[in-house]
Design brief:
The protein is α+β, with helices and mostly antiparallel strands. It folds into two domains: 70 residues; 157 residues, 60s Ribosomal Protein L30, Chain: A (2-Layer Sandwich), CATH 3.30.1330.60. Helices cover 60% and strands 13% of the residues. It has a five-stranded mixed β-sheet. A hairpin with a 2-residue loop joins strand 1 and strand 2.
Length: 269
């Protein structure tokens, strides 16, 4: 607008100058020359006005594109915000899971410490306490709980199971799996058909004792028999056979809380 005004002003001024000149001279050639100059100036003004119009159109187009860019930027910003929120949820999930794992490890460490302290009176070869993976294993030799080939607990078993049960009862968030194990010597009598029967019935006897005599909640207990198929020692030696005849009390944290944690939060696109 300002450029157009300036050009028109210059043109008007030029016209007055030409009129003044015409009044001063009647030279035809001079008039013709001035007329040609005036025509040239008019053409220049027209060109400048065209250029100004083009600039305005260009500016309008740039403004439209800038507006579009603003919309895109807002969309990208929303996407970035969603991604950051998703990452925060993932970080919270990982931190929570890590805390639970540390908590489980702390419980297992406390269990091992307390069990070993409680079982100090017994021979280390007969009772072994250790952590395997996420569980605490209490491995009790066959002779500590049962007479040979029997599924009934011996009188001596009460002292061992009482000490183990007292530790179990101190913790609410643990479950107990009792596994019976045998050597590979075949067995068959009026009570059991084979080593499967022997291992299962021995595990059941221990579970029943923990529930009825030592008040361990039954919904925390599981009985299982492994027969001869998870040996600790070599069944070709007497020492190996003795190691294999055992009952393992496997203490694990309740896994429902971990199953819930394993479902990671969904990522937003």
């Amino acid at each position: 607008m300002q450029a157009s005004y300036i050009m028109k002003y210059n043109t008007t001024h030029l016209i007055f100058v030409i009129i003044g000149l015409l009044s001063l001279t009647s030279c035809g050639s001079k008039v013709k020359q001035l007329e040609e100059q005036l025509l040239t100036k008019d053409e220049q003004v027209t060109q400048l006005e065209t250029q100004l119009s083009h600039i305005r159109e260009t500016n309008s187009s740039l403004l439209d594109r800038l507006s579009d860019l603003s919309v895109i930027t807002q969309t990208d910003a929303k996407s970035i915000q969603n991604s950051l929120e998703s990452m925060n949820r993932q970080n919270d999930y990982i931190q929570n899971l890590t805390n639970k794992i540390h908590e489980k490890d702390s419980i297992n460490l406390a269990l091992v410490t307390n069990l070993k302290r409680s079982l100090l009176d017994f021979d280390d070869e007969d009772i072994q306490v250790q952590v395997k993976g996420s569980a605490v294993y209490v491995s009790i030799a066959d002779k500590m709980l049962f007479r040979s080939g029997s599924t009934r607990l011996s009188a001596a078993s009460g002292a061992v199971l009482q000490k183990v049960a007292s530790i179990i009862n101190d913790y609410d968030d643990i479950n107990v799996l009792v596994e019976g194990h045998t050597d590979d010597v075949p067995i068959a009598n009026d009570k059991v058909n084979d080593n499967w029967d022997l291992s299962v019935l021995r595990a059941t006897a221990v579970v029943r004792e923990l529930q009825t005599k030592h008040q361990v909640e039954p919904d925390r207990l599981t009985a299982a028999g492994r027969s001869e198929y998870v040996p600790k020692g070599d069944n070709d030696t007497q020492e190996g056979k003795s190691q294999n005849r055992r009952t393992e009390i496997i203490i694990t944290p309740k896994l429902d809380q971990f199953f819930k944690l394993l479902k990671a939060p969904e990522l937003l696109g």
